[in-house]
Structures are given as structure tokens and as C-alpha cells.
Design goal:
Length: about 375
């Protein structure tokens, strides 16, 4: 074990290996594994924010997915791998940014698969992206399933392209006999969002009164607990060489704003910016910021706007039929996310109300005759 590691006493069994444990999916997955009594080893980068692992009894190993030897050392002696790590971005960025995405996501996955194979670590579940799943070119909003191929002939984000290449690495390894699956993830909503995610940042900005307009569209969202359940189902029941889509519900941005208003008590903005106007502005702003201020955060990027305008729906019947997947509620996941950020003091608006939960971070669903219908003005 490398320096900087700590070993829990909860099990003498071989540990399960998790990459990306500081991220939204990984942090929730690690907590689920620990709740199940599983011994967990995580790969961490020293220079990154690893707050998500504070206070948890996990084995910590410092390394970098781009360094094959460090991955080999980290996975040695493990049984079962969850590869959740990825460089997530919705911007085109400069040359250095695009290269970092490629090396972290594509080469990192190749190194992880090779190291797991050499260490005989068993099944590898790789976190995929719904943006790497194809769609009906004549009707982008029609539900997509696992058989639909990514369409490379249009303008796509470097992240989208990288996640498609990640899948290629998985199928290349599977064709050589490695036990590997892809758990396809949609936009994640829920707690333990320490970094936080883009969606988490947007929720906090909303609750703090800094989001005064919006561009409508829609996407498939997945509750954090559901994507974690999907990873566990893939590990326990999935077929090697297959991918499974995990989503909870399709929501328009207008519907998400309704849920944020319900959770926070802050009135939602009613000003909807025309898509073409916002796209033109974001193109100019992103071009300038990516080249001259690459570290400046970009909230409304051209890639994100184009993705939302497709209003893509997911068909997760394969996961339901083969794995017994049963999605839960995005409404509950929104309340869990709000409670998490509120208790971490990321929401500082005095007008924002305290979270309304049962103490576990979850919110009870109303009976059909008790709830207020959520309506959409777009998407």
C-alpha cells in the first residue's frame, strides 16, 4: 500500500476498488458499499478536492489514471472494480483542455481495464454517459436505447466524444475476454454532491437568488440512489460486454425549476430567454473565456444548450427487464440535494427555507390528491 492510505477493520475480504470516489456518483456509491459492509479501496489524486471521503473508513491510495503503474499498484489485491472517474465538461475548451479530457477519460479507462485484467480483479463496471448513446436523427426526443449508435457527423462536445471512446475501450477489452459492463448515467440529482456538480451549483445559485432567467429544454435525470443501484445491479446481475441505461425521469428545465421552488421556497424565474439568442451569446462568451480565461466557470455553454434542446428521452426497459431495475423519484432526489447543500451552508439566502425531510435526507411523496400538479411551459 502506498503512503497516505488508511485501512478499515470492517472486513478481511478483498476490497472493492472505486475510482472517482470524490465525485457525485462515486461518493454515493462508496457510501452504499460501506453500508453493505463492503471493504472499499479508492484511488485519489492528491491535488483534488477529496472532501467526499472525509470520515469514511476506506483504503486511500494516491495515484493518477493516466499513470498505468500507479493504477496497477492501486488495484492489486482488489476484487471487483467500479470505474466512475471522468473529466466532465460541457465546453469545447482550448487544446490543453481537450487533451486532458482525452487522457483522463479514454487513456485512463484503458489503463484501468489493463490494470484490472493483469491483477485478476474480476468484473469492471464502467460509468457511461447518456450523451454517448445515439438518438433518432429525425426525432431526437424519441426514446433512445442501448442499441442506438452515437452520431459523430454533427458538432459534439469533447466530453461526449471521449465517453464514446471510453465505450470502445470497454468493448475492445470485452472482445478479448475481460468481464466489463457499462452503466450508462444520465444527469444525476441527489445528495453527497461535494464538489459540487454543475447541476448542484445551479441549484445553489437558484436558491441564493442568482438565477433570474432560464433557457428551456429537457433531459433525462437519474436520482443518485438510482444510478448507484444501477452500478450494483450491473456488478451482481449484468451480462458481460453489455451496457445498461439508468434513468429516473425525463424533466424539462421548467419542471426542474418548479421542484427547486418547492424545495427552497424561492420563487422561480419566469423570464425565458429565446434559445437562438442565448445560443449566440453563449457561443461568443465561451469562445472568449475558453481561450483567455479557461478557469472561469461557464454556466450556460453552447454544448449544454444544444443538448437540452434535443429533449432526449431514455428507454431503460433493458435494465428493468434484465436486472430488475426500479427507478425512484426525481422530486425526492431534488429535496435530498437541497437538504445536502443547505446543511453544508452552500445556500446562504436568508429567504431560503430549511429542508423539509424526514431526517434522512429524503422527502415523502404526496398522495395523488395531495400534491400540486407540476406543469411545463416548454420542452
Amino acid at each position: 500500500m502506498t503512503s497516505g492510505s488508511s485501512t478499515p477493520d470492517n472486513s478481511s475480504a478483498a476490497p472493492v476498488f472505486v475510482t472517482g470516489a470524490a465525485g457525485h456518483v462515486g461518493a454515493n456509491l462508496v457510501r452504499r458499499l460501506l453500508d453493505e459492509g463492503t471493504r472499499v479501496r479508492v484511488l485519489l489524486r492528491h491535488e483534488e478536492n477529496n472532501e467526499a471521503l472525509e470520515g469514511l473508513e476506506v483504503e486511500r491510495v494516491l495515484g493518477d489514471l493516466r499513470d498505468l503503474n500507479s493504477v496497477r499498484r492501486a488495484v492489486e489485491g482488489c476484487r471487483g472494480v467500479y470505474h466512475c472517474a471522468a473529466k466532465v465538461s460541457t465546453i469545447e475548451g482550448n487544446h490543453a483542455h481537450r487533451r486532458e479530457i482525452y487522457e483522463c477519460n479514454v487513456l485512463g479507462t484503458r489503463n484501468m481495464l489493463r490494470a484490472a485484467r493483469e491483477a485478476e480483479a474480476g468484473r469492471v463496471v464502467v460509468t457511461g454517459s447518456f450523451s454517448a448513446v445515439g438518438y433518432n436523427l429525425d426525432d431526437p426526443s424519441a426514446p433512445s436505447d442501448e442499441t442506438m449508435l452515437f452520431y459523430p457527423m454533427e458538432r459534439t462536445m469533447p466530453y461526449e466524444r471521449s465517453k464514446t471512446l471510453v465505450e470502445h475501450e470497454c468493448w475492445r477489452a470485452a472482445s478479448a475476454g475481460q468481464d466489463v459492463l457499462v452503466a450508462t448515467c444520465c444527469a444525476v440529482v441527489g445528495g453527497s454532491d461535494f464538489l459540487p456538480s454543475r447541476l448542484g451549483k445551479s441549484m445553489c445559485a437558484y436558491a441564493n437568488g442568482k438565477l433570474r432567467a432560464y433557457v428551456d429544454g429537457g433531459f433525462e435525470f437519474v436520482a443518485a440512489r438510482d444510478i448507484v443501484e444501477g452500478h450494483r445491479l450491473c456488478m451482481d446481475r449484468g451480462r458481460s460486454g453489455e451496457k445498461y441505461i439508468f434513468s429516473s425521469e425525463y424533466k424539462t428545465i421548467s419542471e426542474i425549476l418548479d421542484l427547486w421552488e418547492e424545495a427552497s421556497g424561492i420563487p422561480r424565474p419566469n423570464r425565458r430567454i429565446p434559445v437562438l439568442a442565448m445560443l449566440a451569446f453563449s457561443e461568443a462568451a465561451s469562445f472568449y473565456l475558453s481561450r483567455f480565461h479557461p478557469s472561469f466557470p461557464q454556466r450556460f455553454t453552447p454544448g449544454a444548450i444544444r443538448l437540452l434542446q434535443k429533449c432526449r428521452h431514455a428507454n431503460n426497459s433493458k435494465a428493468k427487464e434484465e436486472l430488475g431495475y426500479r427507478p425512484t423519484s426525481i422530486r425526492a432526489a431534488v429535496h435530498e440535494a437541497y437538504a445536502f447543500h443547505y446543511r453544508r451552508n452552500a445556500i446562504t439566502n436568508p429567504d431560503a427555507k430549511p429542508p423539509c425531510t424526514d431526517g434522512t435526507g429524503r422527502v415523502e411523496e404526496p398522495m395523488p390528491d395531495q400534491g400540486t400538479p407540476i406543469t411545463s411551459d416548454g420542452g
